[in-house]
Amino acid sequence: MQRFVNTSTPTGSPTSPLQIADYRKFWLARCCAVLASTAMVVIIGYQLYDVARSHYGMSIAQASFQLGLLGFAQFMPVFLLTPVAGVLADRIDRRKVAAAASFLDCLVAVGLAITTAMQLHSLPVLYAFAVLHGVVRVFISPAMGAIAPNIVPPRLIPKAIALNSIAMQVGTIVGPAAAGYLFAWHAPLPYTTSAVFQVIAAISVMAIRNLPEVHPDARKAHPVRQIVEGFQFIWYERFLLGCITLDLFAVLLGGATALMPVFARDILHVGPAGLGEMRAATAAGAAVMALFLSFRPIAKEVGVKMLLAVGAYGAATLAFGLSRSLALSLVFLALLGAADMVSMFVRGSLVQLRTPDDKRGRVSAISGLAISASNELGEMQSGIAAAFLGATGAVVFGGAGAILITALWAFLFPEIRRARTFDTSPAREDS
């Protein structure tokens, strides 16, 4: 027998997170931080691939392998520092952690602008800045992710998750697209623009006022024990574990993002502007889906819908790999982004609704680690696969692999298939 939760709205209470002043500041900070970060990542990738081809005389396969190494270089700071970032988000004022990281990323952007203006084009320089960017951004996500539940009532969290995703996708749409055009106009401009938006993000997050004090016990506990507790919490939450690992392995195999510079330069022949459009198309599909979910949040059959979405993500990836038309490629990328958004919504809502506040920074960090692992290691996998199979073969192989992973996870984690709502206790599932 299905039981339902009372979702009535108290009289006079906000019906949307955007009616809360602190949430609007948070939304602006998140949007600006993502816009700056995605713009930097896209241009670093394009510069690295272009430098490898033009300055070092590498073949397409060799330069593609460099993109794989770039993904690995960006992942290592995430892998090493994510547990530390999660503990800091639970022990220190989350606003200060996010703001400090944004200011440091601003300095990285300024450094990239200077080296680009001086035409200091070399692979070591680009790798070094990519690593620095990876180091500072790892501290932004856990702190930001743990702030929203502190300023939004629990009943509005699903809508906040969707709006958070809209902020992220708006930044992901505008950032790459604008960066591609700005780079074509004047190479240092994407980085100087990113620096400005990082400052705006830092100021906005520090302007949030109604944030609860850090619990005194959080500072007394040993940091290593806190890290272990975060991993233990996820391990025993089977639905949460299944969702996070499904996303990790599916995107790890199905990620086509790393090879977009190859498609833009040597397959579709559309240059940096086309690269920005492709990156923006993925985000546009996700943004449209996020907007829909902000009005009609998923509330029933959440597990099955997540599985279908991840399978659709793999199919869209496969179709993109076979496309030789920019317009058709943009359509497939938009569908890819929309499918990925559904998966992100389920996972994000689950993390926020099922995690106690004193563990939220650590759990958000671990979830972010899985996302980064799937993205950055996915880029490495794609680059290595492209060196052997070609860019098309690597993307098609990855898309098929994502579909296979989805089918496998449906049986390895029956909790996902059986989950009816975000409350996944047996009483909330149909018998």
Jot down its keywords.
disordered N terminus, Growth Hormone, Chain: A, mainly alpha, single chain, 431 residues
Proportion in β-strands: under 5%
Which stretches are low in confidence, meaning pLDDT under 50 for 5 or more residues running? 1-11, 424-431
Quick check: average pLDDT?
79
Could you tell me the radius of gyration in angstroms?
21 Å
> How is the CATH topology named?
Growth Hormone, Chain: A
- CATH class category name: Mainly Alpha
Overall SS class:
mainly alpha
Q: What is the number of independent domains?
A: 1
Name the helicity range: over 70%
Distance between the termini: 7 Å
Q: What order do the helices and strands follow?
A: HHHHHHHHHHHHHHHH
How many E strands? 0
The tally of helices reads 16
What does the overall shape look like? globular
Largest β-sheet summary = none
Name the CATH superfamily classification: MFS general substrate transporter like domains
- What is the CATH architecture assignment? Up-down Bundle
Descriptive account of the structure:
There is one protein chain. The chain is 79% helix and 0% strand. The chain is globular. The protein starts with 20 loop residues before the first helix and ends in a 13-residue tail after the last helix. It has a single domain (20-209, 220-428), classed as Up-down Bundle (Growth Hormone, Chain: A), CATH 1.20.1250.20. By secondary structure, it is mainly alpha-helical. Residues 1-11 and 424-431 have low confidence and may be disordered. It has helices at 21-54, 60-91, 94-117, 123-137, 140-151, 157-185, 189-206, 216-220, 223-236, 238-254, 260-267, 271-295, 302-322, 326-354, 360-412, 414-418. Helix 6 runs antiparallel to helix 7 and helix 10 runs antiparallel to helix 14.
